[in-house]
């Protein structure tokens, strides 16, 4: 098929289409410029908001950090005080235990020293009861 459109018709169609394209392009360009401006405004507001949030978060973080440091210092002080009390109590108990051990050693030594005479007395009592015949207990005075 061969087109039967004349040269002038072709130019007329191109110019009409061209005008339409130009208006579409112009409208599209203005719309894109407006969107870019809106996006710039939104990003600027978001940037300001994030900067404010960042400052607020940094402030809260510093406050929390100082509170934690203060709390830790108090806990360390309390722990140090309790450690000193416990060490003092352990020293007292240790001295009491060593004193009791000393007394126990002295008591054992005294008991050991008393065992020899007790063993002799027990031996004599045993010998008297087994070797002598049973006899009546006479309450007469002993003659010397």
Structural summary, described in words:
By secondary structure, the chain is mainly alpha-helical. The protein is 87% helix and 0% strand. The chain has one helix at residues 7-131.
Distance between the termini: 177 Å
Number of strands: 0
Radius of gyration: 58 Å
The proportion of residues forming helix, as a percent range, comes to over 70%
Please work out how many helical segments DSSP would assign.
1
* Average pLDDT rating: 84
Q: What are the low-pLDDT stretches, counting only 5+ consecutive residues below 50?
A: none
Major pleated sheet = none
Estimate what percentage of residues fall within beta strands.
under 5%
Structural class from helices and strands? mainly alpha
> What global shape is seen?
rod-shaped
- H/E topology pattern: H
Secondary structure layout plus pairing:
Blueprint (H helix, E strand, L loop, with lengths): L6 H125 L13
Gist of the model:
The protein is an all-alpha fold and 144 residues long. The chain has one helix spanning 7-131.
List descriptors.
144 residues; mainly alpha; 1 helix
